[in-house]
Amino acid sequence: MYAQTARSEPHNMSDNETKRDYRDTVFLPVTEFPMRAGLPQREPEFLKKWEQDKIYSTLRGDSDGREKFILHDGPPYANGNIHIGHAMNKVLKDVIVKSQQMQGKDAIYIPGWDCHGLPIEWKIEEKYRKKKKNKDDVDPVEFRQECRDFAAEWIEVQKEEFKRLGVFGDWANPYTTMNFKAEATIVGELLKFSTSGALYRGSKPVMWSPVEKTALAEAEVEYHDHTSVQIDVAFPLVSATDPSLAGAKVVIWTTTPWTIPANRAVCFGPDIDYVRVKVTAVSEGALAAVGEEFWAAEALVGAFASRAGIKAHELVSHVKGAVFEGSILSHPWRGHAGADSYYDFDVPMLPGDHVTIEAGTGFVHTAPGHGDDDYQVAHVKFGIPVPYTVDESGCYYPHVTLVTGEHVYKVADHVCELLEGAGALKGKGKLTHSYPHSWRSKAPLIFRNTPQWFISMEKTGLRTTALQAIEDTNWYPAAGKNRIRAMVADRPDWVISRQRAWGVPITVFVHKDSGELLQDAGVNARIVAAVEEKGADAWYITPAQDLLGSDYSADDYEQVQDILDVWFDSGSTHAFVLEGRGLPSPADLYLEGSDQHRGWFQSSLLESCGTRGRAPYKGVLTHGFTMDGEGRKMSKSLGNTVAPQTIIQQYGADILRLWVVAVDYHSDVRIGDEIMKGQADAYRKIRNTIRYMLGNLAGFTEAEKLPFAEMPELERWVLHRLSELDTMVRGHTAKYDFNPIFRELFDFCNYELSAIFFDIRRDAFYCDSEADIRRRAARTVLDAVFNRLVLWFAPVLSFTAEEAWQSRYGSEIESVHRQVWPETPVNWLDTALAAKWATVLDVKEEVNGVLEGARRDKVVGSGLQASVTVKLKDQKNLDAFNGLDAKEIFITSGAKLVHDAAQEKTVAVLYVVAEGDKCERCWVISPEVTAHGELCNRCDSVVTAADAAAE
Fold first, then answer.
1. Would the pLDDT of 18 be above 70?
2. What sign does the CA torsion over 705, 709, 714, 720 have?
3. 939 assigned binding-site residue
4. Predicted model pTM
5. Is residue 41 part of a domain?
């Protein structure tokens, strides 16, 4: 956007004369702000300066006494380099914090890390496995120290990677869940649940990983396709409440053959229509036999017949499900010679609301030790004992005859053999379906009945409190409320125990005889104090008697050894990060990926509601997941991952930051080479806009500023747009919605500034005299635009905004990030002027289109070589140009506007080659130049005055 020097021969000049070079009379843009950003090289320089200037603590000093804004950081896991999802999350948090800071708040951001739990423990175990050593042979405190060291090492790595993104925060004092004071606070929060009566030990089926040998929370579970063996099994009727039921077998369908040894009931739907069918023909190899009779749901009997190889059957009778209530079945292996009478129990038929006719047979095999629905119906509602069937490694206990010691992953064929031998197997096949897997080992999970520690959702009203807290919270996007509400409304009690080594222990004592939890404030205080002094290891290295004190005997109490669910750790962070540091609580905002509705958002909600009766946050924002450029989930096996470190090395962190706000981060987002090239192009346009402003603001002073009342319409129109943008930026910032901000600011740079204001006023910037009202007005507005646009972009383009600010005001000036977004004068908003200029710009677009055609046809080389006549059908369109210089707006050397109500088109544009010669200074073609020989009247006046001043 630099002016060029004219080289054409002047009029009325002899061949022997030398034409004057007018470049030194033109105000060419002057700036050291380079066109090429060189972000990968320049950004570390700014990082170093921010570190030297202690930018975060400086901002805290600047903000002393202001309203605080707290975005509480959800802790990433300290076990590897950050990935693109981490980068998006941390950048978005930084954009929000900086935008709040620049609106005059004290925006505090304390980064943190989750340090306990299975992923880290798994890494340390891998080291021992490679050495053929068993982790259980290692001293637990020594093992825990290795886990602590591993986490500490990765915290330092991730810290530097996050700082390289340009994220401001209290990096010198982050929080970690393994800090001794944090561990003590976590223990204290647990003991609050114990004291309230919400904590209990119960035996019920929980999600269990046989590989990791521990219970898992729902947030630690992934769902993948899994191929299961599906079977149809016939249960004989022992006694029937209705004589019409006798003589036929009840058929169940299941995709977990390994749970057959744990069957204790069969459920039916009271309102479902069931039919009794008699087999009349079967296919070769069928497991069903001619003459057998079965009960199945009427809607599903056809599917069952297909699976069982039944080619034909006849309908014997029809009943409603309620008829089955009170009937007794026998287990298929009842009386088996090798079972040692283990399966010689009654199998009652129970009504169940969970029974549907979507799949299966309409009868549900019920193993209360291996499913929550089964547990709720059989045990909770009808009091059927829950058997212990499978051990921690997924193998059947010794007392489970016929399958003793076998692994549940491998037992399906044997179970089928046993069922077929008993004449009970009627169908067998494969089914691929979505199935829970461990997020760490990727192995399929099981539901397993095992003693665990739970926090009750009902006993102290936790569910009700949490549901009300959800209503009281602002959710961004709003759909997040319904999602988490459904999860909390339906969730079972919170399983908080893990059978692992690395984490905060469940620090409670249980009386060996009564099974009662010890409730003693003094004991609890000693436990918390010990952990604060020695860390969570205190539970293992401090004698139990020391913790119990003189009022109790350690011989009478069991010291629980289970580890707390890491989601309880992170769910307690509000207690030691916000309250523990004297910050306002609840936080203004929690921000994580949408999967955290069942993870951190929920565990934090439940922890805070259970101990404080409210949510730990006022608002919750979720973003989507990162996908590759084709919309596929990122996977190392597919080779489609995108590392933020690679993007930074190639493009710079500001391009990555721009991508975060340029996408709709509320949904899943794509990233890839072509997408990043597009962001780099967008960045260049923004940078060139800033560069153009800097170049044309060279030497601008306060004395040059022109009062608003003296400004031409074009400048007042730009100020009107700034007023609208100010409202838009603040409004969307309040909703943490930065994508519309980026789009509108980007369009403002490309259209209103570059294509209109800069284009029209280029002549004024370059060629008007310093004192000219038009040039002063344009530069006054340019100053206002720069001071807003750069500050609005600063939370996103943190490095570039700093560079631009220093380029204009000097490297010793206060950081751009210490500035506050300027308020906009109310008189800048002028809707009537905006409506008028909307018409003017519509007409300008028509003129531009015609002149573009003339350039393509090589009739003219630029608009200044043309003179246009614009015919307007509507008088109001003509009136819009009152007081305006049309040729200045169209950037032509001549322009005439006429009213023609008879024409068909709203706007008709005619052009001719402009008459006269070209001004050697501004390139306008005019008869004035013909008269003077080189310059138009304006340029002649400016040059004459400049020459006189120089003498």
1. no
2. positive
3. yes
4. 0.85
5. no
